[in-house]
Design a protein that fits this description.
The complex is a heterodimer.
Chain A: H1 6-11, H2 16-31, H3 33-36, E1 40-43, H4 50-54, E2 58-60, H5 62-71, H6 75-84, H7 93-101, E3 117-121, H8 127-139, E4 143-146, H9 157-178, H10 184-206, H11 217-223, H12 225-229, H13 234-253, E5 263-268, H14 276-285, E6 288-293, H15 311-320, H16 328-342, E7 346-352, H17 356-359, H18 362-373, E8 377-382, H19 392-412
Parallel strand pairs in A: 1-2, 1-3, 3-4, 5-6, 5-7, 7-8
Chain B: H1 3-12, H2 14-25, E1 29-32, H3 39-44, E2 48-51, H4 72-82, E3 91-95, H5 99-111, E4 116-120, H6 129-150, H7 156-182, H8 189-199, H9 204-221, E5 231-237, H10 245-251, E6 254-259, H11 265-268, H12 278-288, H13 301-312, E7 317-323, H14 327-342, E8 347-352, H15 360-387
Helix pairs in contact in B: 1-8, 6-12, 7-8, 7-9, 8-10, 13-14
The chains are: A alpha/beta, B alpha/beta.
Chain lengths: ~425, ~400
Amino acid sequence: MKEKDPEKEKRKIKSAARMKEIMTHYYIEAKTADQSGKKVAWITSGGPVEPLIAMEVIPIYPENHGAMIGASKMGKDLCEKAERMGYSSDLCSYACSDIACSPINGGPIGGLPRPDMLICCTNICGTVLKWYEIQARYYGAPLFILDTPFCHTDFPEQAKRYVRRQLDEYMDFLEKVCGRKIDYDKMKEVGKLSIEGQKLWKAVLDTATHRPAPLSAFDAFFHLALIVTLRGTAQVVEYYTLLLKEMNERIDAGIGAVENEQYRLLWDNIPIWYRTKWLSEKFASHGACLVADTYTSAWCGSLEYLNENDFIETMAEGYSRIYLNIGIDKMAEIVISLIDKYDADGIVMHSNRSCKPYSFGQYDIQKIVREKRKIPSLIIDADMVDERFFSESQVETRIDAFMEVIKGTSARE
Amino acid sequence: MTHMDILEELKRHPYEYARKYKSERGRPIVGYFCSYTPEELIFAADTLPFRLFGTGEHIRLADTHLQAYCCSLVKGALEDAMTGRLDFLDGVVFPHTCDTIQRLSDIWRLNLPLGFHMDVVLPVKLNALSSRRYMIDVLMEFRRNLENAFRKKITDEALLDSLNTYNRIRLLLQKIHDLKYEYPGVIAGEDLHSIMMASMIMDRSELADVLERIAGDLESRKNTSPSPPGERIVLSGGSCNLLDIYGIVEEAGAAVVGDDFCTGSRYYEGLLTIDMNPVEAIAERYLTRNVCPAKHSGLSTRADNIISVVRERKAGGVVFVLLKFCDPHAFDYPSLKGALDQEGIPSTLIEIEDQSSADGRVKTRLEAFIEMLKRKDRKEGELSGAGK
């Protein structure tokens, strides 16, 4: 057997094994739901999962499925299959690859468990609406849409009232599909756990403000899965407590995610799932660590609007005012606050042709950041799942050139 | 100049019309996107609602704000605004529809000091009780915002006048289209296209008069009009920039006898109820009208609608028109096609990048499709003949 590199071993996050265990167990439980009699709901990544947890419905995230498809490099094949089904290659590759899995039980886990219902929250994009309509038709399952009006500059009272009313409609929908009443005491408890989980996730991400950062954005992409899928359960609280402890130990021991961290960068947009390892190593070879990102921080970004003692009442605002549901000037403010908080030397933006609401406006954000913080930025043109839109040599050249600029800027300071 | 000549001129030079209109009448001009902009309120504020289609000429400045995977409507409109071609506008209204228009609004607000900027964030789902209430709230807020922008009260009386004008326009557009569908030779598809474009740009009171005369002309010559081309086609999909597809289809040997475009039937279908609160009447029309795929009103509404249009108009097939990078329409296409297949209705798809790409390739495809429909007709004719 090959000797393990002690340097690499030291940098490995040990909690990851526990995380894999939890996720495996979660998917096994979901895939055998028909035997346990539990209901399965498909839900968007930004959707309000807490009522599902309170109703003991198993939440399934097709976007997480998309990420798995990308990471296991099955995106190209599945997207091509979607094209043969009539879906344009310009459409979201999460949606296309997931839609293509359904009739063939394809993908890395042999297809997602059949939904008893679908919950679509429009706070992340308009694409999820189409995606969920398609899957609701395919599976003949009822669809609930939580419509969170876009907050260009503010979140007006009438929008808040509208989302609040829909939450009642949501509860009614769940009670009807599940055939029993929601337990509001349980709901309160789940709300508290959800907020606790988000706070812990935030604390985990915050540890990267330390130099060297004990975890990178690439690590965060992996550990994110729990706050997305099982938010509102005690398991999440338990796991992130463990992870936070490990991060603090790493800080104490001076272990960084990247060996000899010299430059600190910010990542914008959804990861390029089939190239995370390559990108991580590429940046690390320049002594650069991606210390924070706009993507994983979105799952603790609306804590300021939520009240743990009044979860249902504050959910409307908490679920509407999330990163992708606000104007690009507000997004730029958040990017700048991340730059300041993490002391970033540059920003790497993934122009993701699959995600228009995340990518359109990046050029303007880039400009605002350049004016206000005078740090360099790099735009990588790619796609989160479909490898056909990734040119390794081109990206490599651009990263090398960008890192030269970063090194030059840092040297002058 | 005939009435049609006036409209054609307007189609060729919409911005010149706007500039002249403004200098001669002194009336403010409000740019807007999409059929979910409540035009009735803009018109009631004594201003001209002017739909933006983007000319798509030499995209240069817009490329510094939007990536290559953005549709030509949005890029074209941004380019026109950034190069000053839209300097006659007093403000722009952005209804919330697709993700691209949503971000265009942000980019526009941050980069273009062109008068006022209003977002009308209507609900995405239209079939819930909560959405109806919210829709009315948003429309009332839009009314207040317009009043503030123009320092002018929009009275119920003015609004009622506006509703009546729009009903008159929509009835006339419906009548003109009905005539076309019944007597396809009575008016060329290209002229229908000019009429639709002018309808979203021209002074609405004058438009109503012009449409009335055109409808009268068509009515009087319907029985003497040349015999229609053989195949009857329904258009479906996205034509937010009002592609001049009608002429191309007719050149390829068919007549357009129906559509579900937001710049076509969805623009004029559904009348406003006059004996109710006028703002609620506008909401009611939006809630009951056939939807844009960026909105939700059930899982089969669009498919049911297109099938019923094909049946009603006795069309032989459907041509799907997709504007490249338009996600909502591209997502709906496979299931709409599937629904047509099940009904035995043939269809074909053409994807268009912008007006200039509606070229020979598209025509060849259409000709092949129409040829196939003709063969199918002949075969069915023979079969029914044999059964007699």
